[in-house]
Amino acid sequence: MATPASSTAKTDFPWWLAVAAALAVAAAMFIAASDLYAQVFATVATGIGITVFVTVVAFALASAIGLGIALMGLSGSRWLRQIARFYVEIIRGVPMLVLLFWIAFAGAPAFVAGWNALTAPLQSAGLFGELMIRDVSLLSRAIMALTIGYSAFISEVFRAGIQAVEKGQIEAAKALGLTRTQRFRLIVFPQAIRTILPPLGNDFVAMVKDSSLVSVLGVADVTQMGKIYAAGSFRFFETYSIVAYIYLILTVGLSLALRALEKRLRRRDER
Questions:
Q1: Are 171 and 82 in contact (CB under 8 A)?
Q2: Residue 38 burial (10 A CB sphere; 0-12, 13-18, 19+)
Q3: How many angstroms separate the Cα of 198 from the Cα of each of 42, 101, 102, 258?
Q4: Is 101 exposed, middle or buried (0-12, 13-18, 19+ CB in 10 A)?
Q5: Tens digit of pLDDT for each residue in 209-262?
Q6: Per-domain residue ranges for the chain?
Q7: 147 CB-near residues (< 8 Å, 6+ apart)
Q8: At the topology level of CATH, where does 20-270 sit?
């Protein structure tokens, strides 16, 4: 017999979503009917492609690095565990905006200087040209900053998901003679991903919002296009209302898609 709480959870209609959808449609109709808002939207929307590109590339790289850091933190080597913990604690302790500035204006020049020092003999032989700081675009620096910043948080998500897998199954896999790589690929990761997916999705949505920080480097994302339009027209209310509207559409849409994916995986597991 279903409890009152479970019954309520099953029949609870998402009124918030209905209201949000109605407001979104009303806003879209108002934007289409207003020449001013339509112009602002057309200008700001040109940055959506950069916002999506920065988010997808940075998140993919951060997930790959985060998985590597998580595996280092769970390895049998004390030194690898200490290196992983050092990376996670240091990176998580730096605000994302500060990290963005540091990578863009300190880390990138240091990388260019180091690269030129290492390849100096090859440059003398004419095999390589000298790398200049202007060759490293601000877009690349912004992506690298988001990648490094989020990789520390994502590594903790992977670590927690991997540790949530029952040790009995790992021991059974060992008894079957599976190697460490086979145990991870066939036993651990397929089960861990169900635990990892919800917080990983939250990090992806958070990165969509934090991608707005790249505007401080002049990267032409949604926020930067809004700043440029507002500075030239002094239409700050209209411009930033459109900017907020676009980000809400992106983040709420992603959240609903991820929630639907979680429900689909849960129903498949219950079969």
A1: no
A2: middle
A3: 33, 30, 30, 8
A4: middle
A5: 999 999 999 898 999 999 999 999 999 999 999 999 999 999 999 998 888 888
A6: 20-270
A7: 58, 61, 62, 65
A8: MetI-like fold (1.10.3720)
